[in-house]
Request: fold
Amino acid sequence: MAFILFLTTVCACNKLDVPPTNIVQDKDVFTDAGMLAYMAALYSRMPIEDFKYSATEGDEGFNTWNQIWLPMLNTGENANRNTNGFQNPARGYWKSGYQVIRNANYLIEQLPAYAATLTQEKVDRWISEARFVRAFTYFALAKRYGGVPIIDQVQALNDGNIAPLQVPRNSEQEVYDFILGDLDYAIEHMREQSEQQGRANKNIAAAFKSRVALFAGSIARYAKPYVVDGVMLNGIPAEKANDYFTQSFQAAKMIEGKYTLYKKKWSAIDKIATADNFADLFLDAESPENILVKGYFYPDAFHSFDAVYSPPHMTSTYGDRFNPTLDFVELFEGLPKNEKGQLKTTHDDGTYVVYDDVEQLFEDCEPRLRGTVLLPGQPFKGMHTDLRRGTIEESVDPATPIQKFVGEGLTASYNANTFYATHVKQSGTWNSQTPIELSTGYSINPTGLDGPTSANNATVTGFHGRKYLDPKITAAETQLHRSTQSWIEIRYAEILLNRAEAALELYQHGVTQVDGVALQEDAANCLNQIRERAGAPLLTGSTELSADAPLAVGTGVGSYVLAPTRGLQIIRIERRKELAFEHKLWWDMLRWRTADLEVNARIWRKLNPFLFAKGAVPEAPDYVRGKYIFDGRFDERNARFTVATKYYYEAIPGGEIAANPKLEQNEQY
Amino acid sequence: MYSCEKDNYETPNAVLQGTVIDAHDVPLQLEQGQGTGRIRMEETSWSDTPIPFYLNLKQDGSYVNNKLFAGTYLVTPVEGAFYPVQGETIEINGSTQHDFHVTPYLQVEWVNEPTVLAGGQVTATFKFTRNAGPAGEAMPNLLDYQLFISTTQYVGNNNFDGTVVGGVVSVANDKENMPITITSTAPMKYATTYWVRVGVRVNDSYKKYNYTTIKTVTVP
Reply:
């Protein structure tokens, strides 16, 4: 005791300035091993809108299992029974972003002092990576808020004076130029290969630059400027548009030959193989199309995509929330359509076409559709997608024509139709149905195991999605917190579409070539690469990408996709078909400033299959062979979606304005 | 113990009320709530940069708030189907009455009031007139119209039976002053009284409806 007392007395007074052992010191971090950890932390906080992104919860919208609500519910890609109208995705992403930016700035400031121990080459490379992460994060902020304060150094509190920490917003243009500056630095100083999988390199920085510059160009061309005290907080001067589109084009062109479209199973003649090829590209870790990928592995990092997004009878829990709309399905080739561009499942006299089985309507469809969506009867996970809204009684012969239940464009319920009310059997749930006993001795469910039901659960659109779903796990293994497929944040198809769009935007605004490349031809060529892989018909020539007026709404396939010219309309339709469900299209519709007119009291469309009980033979619990009719109609919930113009930007979080009175709020908030 | 003493402020009891009046000196036709515009309040006697708050409007264009702190406010009707107006500085003390004058984008009027067809559908004829911008602002283009039918008097875009009226109907500027007939797409479900109005929109930032007055029809 005396000894301890002696020791404490002597030592404690001597020196309190000992580095605490429970806090990691800079000298330990700025080593090869320490940098591995620092980078892991930096990248893991990068705002990637992946399988853990959400419009309702999480850390300012990130890092949650709950993906039921996503911005793609507002675009016409996806619908689900939990959402009856516009889903505002604003989650106040701000603080988390500036934390990442601070961590990146710290690295940029401190690393040069360690050049002697680390080598100059590594210091340059890691500073480039920090600048890439900073650019990525600023882009997430610029997409949401327009101009935000540019903080390019580590802020410190001196003498309790907070005034220097309160930085006003820069203009949107300054933010985009800052991001592009960081990316140019990264492209110049990085190597061709990433240090580890998931980390940035020269080509990834160029790919990302093509996306950022395309956004900046679109904002300059289409956004309405909002100026406060001389600072253009929202919008970019229109005369800058061509500059940004040129940068986007050049960045995309720079990585030509570094990546290729995934075609391992692709076949010029086998549509099913080409469809499977398209589905595989999202699951093959060795895909040459992948550019920037965020990996997951159990049990350290996982998500719940399969459990929440599988068809209901193919998962142990949740399911159901992946319902591509008929509006989306109608964009694809190889389907019967009417003059409005809508799926045509009736004869000209208004009676239904009778199909020999549930697959027949879609048998010649564009392979990319089958690779993206689970169509009626489609095999998956060793089961079948079982889609049937109801079953027509055995007393009705399929040879007798049936008039369309509810007229085109009407919102009335089926029960208003007398034939329907007396002859169609339906179920309110998919998992506890009263089977219909047939005279043949068979018994069948009135409604499919994957819906759509009369109470609007299971699917609300008549389809389920396929993109990104893992076909190798059984229904019982499909559980929350067990999915590990990688999220592909950037893939080469997007870069080709960026390049085509930037090229045509330039071509239709007085620039015929960039760096000796003829732009209209290049746009058509990029588009045809995408279409060939998709199994879609190719453009007949570059002049199809014309400056003519676009198809007016309701006058042809994809005419609801708004664009200033027919050429740009074709490119925008292609982008939707290719990039749907990849959390990209919401941002596209914002930067084009088309969301408010396109999604305006909009009711998504739905396709309901009906089985004839007469002659029906159940071949599996989830497959009934028999004759079918299909009814295209408005969503039976009558859910109407409107995107107001205020949502082109989010509101700056109120707490941030309270902490920094120099922050001006966005318009309409 | 002490905190109770300091909390003894008077409850706010000043009243602001009035009506939003349109270009023809009649109350503006609105939705109940904030769906077709609202009143922005900024208390300038409290702060130079006050955080705004908002009052709801009633269908008949009137509004009231009887729980305000007395003071000077900048008050502006915003986000409605009318040309933007400058805010007005109002001294609110006791009970203050203030009417706002706005120019709606459109006047929407009945030509033939709603009736019930033999099949149970509701039909009506209306027309719209475009108002010129009061300060020479460009007139926004027409967007679409919609029939609204409800079993309550609060009929409007925030309260209607979507299964009987179909989707919005696109309309162009050249239909101005022409009678447009609109009919419900399905028979009414119950024998009761329905409240009916028609809304027409232009393509401005807010895309809110200008409405006809509300009429009732009785389905036998």
